[in-house]
């Protein structure tokens, strides 16, 4: 299976590992009726008999089965001319059998009469172009941690098929070919196909599952298609981000608040940026923290705050990252920066931190971060920084001084934290959002845990 082509680019000098060496399992065992790949046991079987009539969504129980399963469907178009010849020949055989039984005076055989009607109907549809014939192969591979569990899964799957008069068979001595056939390689190594026309083939369409449920997580609602519960844990998905769309008054806020409450029960921390003051009551009811960020608010966030470095971070990286973030903030506050002003600010910010004895070798947990007014003082002493210092006075001494020129006095310890920006002036709202998001990012990076923002 994982053979190395001597003429391929993977050929290396003695002792050098290739890509195949890294992706290949530690061990591989192939037996007549199962395979062991590393620590996993696999078993492949194929379907060899179908009933006369297939219901729509007959694959649904298998697709919705709570087991690790690979299913491959191969559909190979067949030449209608060859099929018509075979049908004509088969029809003649059936007719002759019916005539022989009639001549002998035997009781009519309903099986032969049904076959006669089906063959004639199918032949007519093929001649009229209403149907086409295909060679259809359905292969299923099961996975389990032990051979015993593999056997239990096999019994469960086989019972599902046999309840619909569909009969599977283990791919004896072809487990390797079966594994390849159910891998995403587009290879039909088993080549065990059944002839199906268009109508029954359409019932094998696999995307018919309407269940939106998992074994764990929070309740999101009820599936209107089948009245089943919608349960899932967003943190176990490949990407846990979500977006909520809906018309005005459709229940977006209600659904979001309900998810917040149920997530808190499961131990998840919640951080909300509230532009319309919708979450104050929720925060107060759940004994959470509510911070009103505005010019006249008693709650303040100092953009010069530095997070405590984690085990895989260096103080130098933290300080440099925060200086870059502050340059971005000042670019918004000052309405843009020239290249010369950018250089001046980068130098001034480093000196501002140094004025509080904060350097790349400092212990940030024991240091008091500077304020915006400290940056203004430093810039005044730098050649070419007079214009920047003048612009900063609006935020340190002017009408906006109550917003950014204060030490941080909020403490996030509760499970639910709400930042309200409704009362913030429109001109300052982008700045407030920038500061809040930077504060939240420093919080998130300092301690990894389940959080919803």
What do you see in this structure?
40% of the residues lie in helices and 16% in strands. The two termini are 46 Å apart. The strands form three sheets. Strands 1, 2, 3, 4, 5, 6 and 7 form a seven-stranded antiparallel sheet that branches. A four-stranded parallel sheet has the order 11-12-10-13, with helices on both faces. Mean pLDDT is 85; it is low at 6-12. The chain has helices at residues 19-23, 60-63, 80-103, 110-128, 147-162, 175-182, 198-202, 252-265, 280-285, 315-333, 339-355, 372-380, 386-396, 401-404, 429-446, and strands at 28-30, 35-37, 40-49, 69-77, 133-144, 167-170, 194-197, 218-222, 229-232, 269-274, 289-292, 416-420, 451-452. The chain is built from 15 helices and 13 strands. A hairpin with a 4-residue loop joins strand 1 (28-30) and strand 2. It is of the alpha+beta class.
